[in-house]
Automatic annotation (TrEMBL):
Belongs to the AAA ATPase family. BCS1 subfamily. One of its GO terms (molecular function) is ATP hydrolysis activity. Keywords: ATP-binding, Magnesium, Nucleotide-binding, Signal. CDD domains: RecA-like_BCS1. It comes from Ensete ventricosum. Its cofactor is Mg(2+). Residues 288-297 have a biased composition (Basic residues). Transmembrane segments: none annotated. Residues 217-374 form the AAA+ ATPase domain. This is AAA+ ATPase domain-containing protein. One of its GO terms (biological process) is response to stress.
Length: 478
């Protein structure tokens, strides 16, 4: 009443402006992809919003993955839903910006393969900026984890995934994985088997430990040995034991280190990434040996040197430009940006062909030599395939012969299966195997066995014979 009208107007104009500023909404944009990587916050928010909307939203999208026994809800495109957190009103909208190249399909149709730009918009009053950033976003991530964990607990079986093409939007194409191999059916030395099982169970129970010591929650296994000694079977037994997804990575199908990196970060927690026959995939052989060779052959130019040398980011071999340094990065550090536990397993029949850098402790934490059939493994095969035990009259002779010939569990399993199929029974199967071992003994003396022999010259001092712990591949002992 005491102010002149002009000043009155000015003060109320300023106050209105101030209030509007204080109450204005701000937006957080959560893109589906961060560059070429899947944005974890986007998928977490979708999982969170889906379960949140299920009860009251007018439209919810339901989809069912093959490995999940029930459908998962998510927010459809072009929809808005409301949430409230500690009294803060929040609004989520899902937005799709159609790319000019995409077809004029209906808005509700989803295609992970299209190049449309999808994102979520989170709007809330600007004064809650700090609370949303520090409390609400972590709450969404934690809730999404909880929802996924529940789904995983009810899952019926794990995935086997294969790489196809180079479609970075959907690099892994999952197919059902139901390999019957388990630690009970695996015919390997029982001491080694129990050691591996204990190591795995210890690994998955040590979330806090890994975080305390500042290491990413990953473990690398390197399985080597002759063909047919159970490397693939062991991978399947590991996946079945831990109920992990299996990502079967064919390195030659991966065109570049960038794609390799993208593949890795798009794997789920609780997964095993397997590279089988890693020596055959790419040229990951010893750089020192190669350098020596190159010196002898005097390369024409620096360019050639760089192109040949994977450590320099060169192209390695073949059409794939994935090289040793890409694989080392893949094994080393990239998991630090991923949440959850992961196993990486390399298998090979020729460990001596690989660069020792790939195998040093910390990269490959356990080196497991799967060798020819030993008596204990033979007894397991006989029990599993023929349902006979140590009391069988031919068992002692078979075990004695095993010490003198190199025969793989796969060969024995094959003979056992064939006889069983012909209905000749256990005795015939044992006789057949013994006959084969006698024949092999007569034909050639057994080759030297043992891990160092299998690794070949030059590898003995790398990790195997350095110290006892290295021999066991047990990095925790250091
Ligand atoms: N240790 C084992 N225990 C039980 N079965 C085995 C074992 N090793 C091999 N087999 C049998 O032999 C078949 C081939 O074995 P597997 O594929 O696991 O061998 P691998 O070492 O991975 O061979 P490769 O190096 O050629 O890939 C399996 O289907 C399995 O039936």
């Amino acid at each position: 009443d005491f102010l002149p009208p002009e000043l009155h107007h000015l003060v109320s104009f300023l106050l209105r402006g101030l209030m509007a500023r204080f109450n204005a909404d701000i937006k957080i944009v959560v893109d589906e992809y961060d560059g070429s990587y899947t944005n974890e916050l986007y998928s977490a928010a979708q999982a969170y919003l889906g379960s949140h909307c299920l009860d009251d939203a007018p439209v919810v999208r339901l989809s069912k993955r093959h490995d999940c026994p029930f459908p998962t809800p998510s927010l459809p495109s072009y929809h808005t839903t409301h949430d409230s957190f500690q009294g803060i009103p929040l609004q989520w909208s899902s937005v799709v910006e159609r790319s000019s190249s995409s077809s004029s399909s209906s808005p509700s149709r989803s295609s992970s393969l299209s190049s449309d730009h999808r994102y979520l918009e989170l709007s809330f009053p600007s004064r809650h900026r700090e609370a949303v950033r520090s409390h609400y976003i972590p709450h969404v991530l934690a809730e999404a984890d909880r929802i996924r964990l529940r789904a995983r607990e009810r899952r019926l079986y794990t995935n086997r995934s294969v790489v196809y093409g180079d479609d970075h939007r959907n690099p892994w194409s999952p197919t059902p994985f139901s390999h019957p191999s388990t630690f009970e059916t695996l015919a390997i030395d029982p001491v080694l088997r129990d050691e591996i099982r204990d190591d795995l169970l210890r690994f998955v129970s040590r979330r806090e430990y890994y975080s305390r010591v500042g290491r990413s929650w990953k473990r690398g296994y390197f399985l080597y040995g002759p063909p047919g000694t159970g490397k693939t079977s062991l991978v399947a037994a590991i996946a079945n034991l831990l109920e992990f997804d299996v990502y079967d990575l064919e390195l030659t199908a991966v065109h570049s280190n960038t794609v390799l990196r993208r593949l890795l970060v798009s794997t789920n927690p609780k997964s095993v990434v397997v590279i089988e026959d890693v020596d055959c995939s790419l040229d990951l052989s010893d750089r020192n040996k190669k350098k020596k060779k190159k010196k002898k052959s005097k390369p024409d130019s620096d360019t050639e040197e760089r192109e040949m040398d994977p450590s320099e980011g060169g192209t390695g071999r073949g059409t794939s430009s994935v090289n040793l340094s890409g694989v080392l990065n893949f094994v080393d550090g990239l998991w630090s940006s991923c949440v959850g536990e992961r196993l990486m397993i390399f298998t090979t029949n020729h460990p001596e062909r690989l660069d020792p850098a790939l195998l040093r402790p910390g990269r490959m934490d356990r080196k497991i030599h799967l060798s020819y059939c030993c008596p204990a493994a033979f007894r397991m095969l006989a029990r599993n395939y023929l349902e006979i035990g140590e009391e069988h009259e031919l068992m002692a002779e078979a075990e004695a012969l095993l010490a003198e010939v190199d025969i793989t569990p796969a060969e024995i399993a094959e003979m056992f299966m064939r006889c069983d199929g012909e209905g000749k029974g256990a005795d015939a199967a044992m006789e057949k195997v013994i006959g084969e071992m006698r024949r092999q003994k007569a034909a050639s003396p057994p080759s030297e066995r043992g891990p160092a022999a299998a690794l070949g010259p030059g590898m003995e001092n790398g990790f195997l014979l350095g110290c006892d712990s290295c021999m066991r591949g047990d990095d925790d002992a250091h």
